[in-house]
């Protein structure tokens, strides 16, 4: 029996929601990118085969992709990071006070966002997908105090549109995510029984669209809210894992490991089957 590995060009697990399907129909480059992300995460998490054995024979899956990528992440972020603002010997005494204040403020922001966990999540996202999107927002803690919140967004949720003459600058960015809407109560008839106050939930696709001047919020392509962007810039930062001059996106550390890991699993699986056939 021939076994099939997950390929980088694997099928995208699409949804029946007409909005998300319509978005991908008009943005085929994004659909290919999200398909690629899904398969890369599959290799990282050990989902190397499209299907298992139907005859009970051995299938070997050695996940060296995850082991190597995790070692790279630990190498880069094991000592976390620290804020450092270089001193200027010609700066005034007031500038030194300002620099110390800025350093303290930045340290407070990183501490409240758990810098160790944050940098590990960011490094993992970038290593697997090749891209890391960080969203900056204002939130409120349990005591009611406001603070700057930093979130590592799943790369598959982010859809940037770059300027035609500058592929390093984002003109517009969409962040799309599913949301469970409120539960609806109704009376349902089934098998000659009446079920009162039955509940049902549904999933709706939400989209936040950011530009330098406007922020828009949609649910299933219906505009719910539109407001001015007080920051004057898109509050999502795109970081490439490794530069790729042929694309607006970065290189994944996983992609280069797929072929050798695939070949190794195939060889060991074939050897295991030969041993099993002689043993039987």
Name some characteristics of this structure.
disordered N terminus, 280 residues, 29% strand, 36% helix, globular, three-stranded antiparallel beta sheet, alpha+beta
What's the helix count?
A: 6
Distance between the termini: 17 Å
Please summarize the sheet with the most strands.
Answer: 5 strands, antiparallel
Beta content:
25-35%
List SSEs in N-to-C order. HHHHHEEEEEEEEEEH
| Low-pLDDT residue spans | 1-16
Number of strands: 10
* C-alpha Rg (nearest Å): 24 Å
Assign the structural class, choosing from mainly alpha, mainly beta, alpha/beta, alpha+beta, or little secondary structure.
Answer: alpha+beta
With strands numbered from the N-terminus, the spatial order across the biggest sheet is 3-4-7-8-9
Mean pLDDT, rounded to whole units? 83
Shape type: globular
Helix proportion: 25-40%
List the helices and strands and how they pair.
Elements: H1 18-26, H2 28-45, H3 64-77, H4 93-112, H5 115-129, E1 131-140, E2 146-153, E3 158-163, E4 166-180, E5 184-190, E6 193-200, E7 203-210, E8 214-219, E9 222-228, E10 236-240, H6 255-279
Antiparallel strand pairs: 1-2, 1-10, 3-4, 4-7, 5-6, 7-8, 8-9
Helix pairs in contact: 1-2, 3-5
Structure description:
With 280 residues, the protein is α+β, with helices and mostly antiparallel strands. It is 36% helix and 29% strand. It contains 6 helices and 10 strands. The protein has helices at 18-26, 28-45, 64-77, 93-112, 115-129, 255-279; strands at residues 131-140, 146-153, 158-163, 166-180, 184-190, 193-200, 203-210, 214-219, 222-228, 236-240. The strands form 3 sheets. Strands 3-4-7-8-9 form a 5-stranded antiparallel sheet, with no helix packed on it. The chain has a 3-stranded antiparallel sheet with strand order 2-1-10. Strand 7 and strand 8 form a beta hairpin. Helix 3 (64-77) packs across helix 5 (115-129). It starts with 17 loop residues before the first helix and ends with a helix. The model is unreliable at 1-16 (pLDDT under 50).
């Amino acid at each position: 029996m021939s076994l099939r590995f997950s390929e980088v060009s694997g099928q995208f697990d699409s949804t029946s929601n007409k909005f998300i399907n319509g978005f991908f129909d008009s943005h085929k480059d994004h659909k290919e990118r999200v398909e690629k992300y899904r398969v890369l995460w599959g290799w990282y998490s050990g989902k190397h085969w499209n299907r298992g054995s139907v005859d009970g024979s051995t299938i070997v899956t050695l996940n060296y992709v995850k082991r190597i990528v995790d070692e790279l992440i630990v190498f880069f972020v094991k000592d976390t990071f620290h804020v450092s603002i270089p001193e200027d010997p010609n700066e005034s005494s007031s500038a030194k006070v300002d620099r110390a204040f800025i350093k303290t403020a930045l340290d407070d922001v990183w501490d409240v966002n758990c810098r160790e966990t944050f940098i590990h999540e960011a490094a993992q996202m970038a290593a697997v997908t090749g891209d890391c999107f960080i969203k900056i927002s204002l939130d409120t803690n349990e005591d009611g105090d406001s603070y700057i919140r930093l979130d590592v967004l799943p790369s598959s949720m982010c859809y940037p549109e770059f300027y035609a003459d500058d592929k390093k600058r984002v003109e517009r960015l969409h962040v799309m995510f599913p949301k469970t809407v409120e539960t609806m109560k109704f009376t349902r008839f089934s098998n000659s029984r009446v079920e009162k106050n039955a509940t049902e939930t549904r999933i709706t696709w939400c989209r936040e669209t950011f530009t330098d001047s406007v922020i828009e919020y949609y649910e299933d392509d219906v505009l719910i809210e539109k407001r001015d962007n007080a920051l004057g810039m898109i509050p999502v930062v795109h970081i490439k894992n490794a530069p790729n001059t042929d694309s607006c996106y970065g290189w994944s550390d996983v992609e280069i490991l797929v072929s050798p890991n695939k070949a190794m699993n195939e060889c060991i699986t074939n050897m295991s089957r030969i041993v099993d056939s002689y043993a039987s």
